[in-house]
Design brief:
single chain; 30% helix; 4-stranded antiparallel sheet; alpha/beta; 432 residues; 8-stranded parallel β-barrel
């Protein structure tokens, strides 16, 4: 059976599945239950400076986006960092780490953007025996208005500065948690690396309003007739997170910088995709909030089975897909495929025909008896028919052989050629 033991920047855990800093990691009771369920590590919910704790709202804290089957696709939360006293959190962290020495326990931190505040809290947490710290530069609401969270994460100079303070005043490995609320995530990642970060984690939540109550005319969740933007997470953010992880992994300036992947991870397959794009481990929140802590058991079993079936180790998986991520202009424009409908599997629902006829390339014909056939002369292989078909593998794409005539263009399929050398590219013509 595949060995899932993880060593992420020197932090060891029995598997690469950690709980992200969030409501599920806010207290000792939760974290103990998480470890009993099988989680390899936990990032304790963000701690703030000593003094009166932050004050959270006492009304609804979550807004939800549902799928057609009422499956939770995304959660918007307006909760802040821990509202429990710092001393209570530190005492509980020390107790949990003492009883679970083989599990990773990371402390998430957020304090005002001055060196004294960071030095003070780092000295306070030293004797907890925690394995590392995660700097919360991503929270987009509540704390950002106070000059913390994403207010720091959106300014690379601040990221570098604070990271240097942390490395100066702490012996612990340092993970910098990045905000997705920025145009180019590689810039803050580069800043974190310059500041001495041992790793980055991403993505934090996306600034959002999930819905509006059309009776109260206020965003949800609604507090006394008013609503606020919050942080969006869950399966719906996974594509955004995957892209940002890949951008950092393939950026020459950050290549090799360890990444902890976060964003919509619900199954072992989600986790494997993050790791294939360069994440050394993954952090989970919404799946645990939706299905409970035991959801990790499916992740562990599924990843075991996948690695065994592919005769791979966990290190083999990490970054395996990164070299295959490229920019559009390098894609092979001579790669040609055509849709093929398996008539034996087709249930004659007509969704492929409706989608192609109304919104695409009119490349599917409806014959008598509701028989649907591909018109190769019109098919551009956009894949929409496959995406809307309710029957898995009923529609597939057939790759044309080199030299085979494309019935749409009348041109034989050629060897590799991309946009940089294409005759329609004015820059390519100018270089001739």
């Amino acid at each position: 059976m595949a060995d899932l033991r993880s060593n992420f920047i020197g932090i060891k855990s029995p598997n690469p599945f950690w709980l992200a800093s969030a409501p599920p990691t806010d207290k000792e009771y939760n974290v103990r239950r998480a470890f009993q369920a099988g989680w390899g590590g936990v990032v304790w919910k963000t701690l703030g400076s000593e003094g009166p704790p932050v004050v959270n709202v006492n009304g609804p804290r979550y807004g939800v986006v549902y799928g057609a089957d009422r499956r939770v696709l995304g959660i918007n939360n307006i909760e802040l960092i821990t509202d429990r006293p710092l001393e209570v959190n530190l005492r509980e962290i020390k107790s949990v780490k003492r009883d679970y020495p083989d599990r990773a326990l990371i402390i998430s931190l957020m304090v005002p953007c001055d060196e004294d505040s960071w030095r003070d809290i780092l000295h306070r947490i030293e004797d907890t025996e925690a394995d590392g710290v995660e700097l919360n530069f991503g929270c987009p609401h509540g704390m950002a208005e106070r000059g913390m969270g994403s207010a720091v994460g959106q300014v690379p100079e601040y990221i570098e500065m604070v990271t240097r303070w942390v490395k100066k005043h702490s012996r612990m490995p340092c993970i910098v948690k990045l905000t997705p609320n920025i145009s180019d995530v590689t810039k803050p990642a580069e800043a974190a690396k310059r500041g001495g970060a041992d790793a980055v984690s991403l993505i934090n939540t996306i600034n959002s309003i999930t819905s509006v109550d059309l009776d109260l005319f206020a965003p949800q969740p609604t507090i006394d007739g008013k609503g606020s933007h919050g942080g969006y997470c869950g399966p719906a953010v996974k594509p955004i997170a995957l892209n940002m992880v890949a951008e950092i992994a393939r950026n020459p300036a950050t290549a090799g910088l360890p990444i902890s992947g976060i964003g919509g991870i619900t199954t072992w397959r989600d986790a494997a995709e993050f790791m294939a794009l360069g994440a050394g481990n993954v952090q989970v929140c919404t799946a645990a909030m939706t299905y409970g802590f035991k959801v990790v058991q499916e992740m562990i079993t599924g990843l075991h089975d996948y690695l065994d079936s592919h005769e791979m180790t966990l290190p083999d998986l990490i970054g395996r897909a990164t070299p295959n991520v490229t920019d559009w202009q390098h894609l092979n424009l001579n790669y040609v495929t055509k849709a093929v409908i398996d008539q034996a599997a087709c249930i004659s629902c007509g969704r492929c025909y409706a989608a192609c006829e109304d919104t695409s390339h009119q490349a599917i014909a409806m014959k008598p008896g509701r028989v649907f056939e591909v018109i190769e002369e019109e098919c551009v292989a956009c894949n929409l028919c496959i995406d809307v078909c309710p029957v898995e593998d009923c529609i597939t794409m057939r790759e044309l052989e080199i030299g085979e005539i494309d019935k749409r263009t009348g041109i034989p399929r050629g060897d590799y050629a991309n946009w940089t050398s294409h005759p329609n590219n004015p820059m390519a013509r100018a270089a001739e």
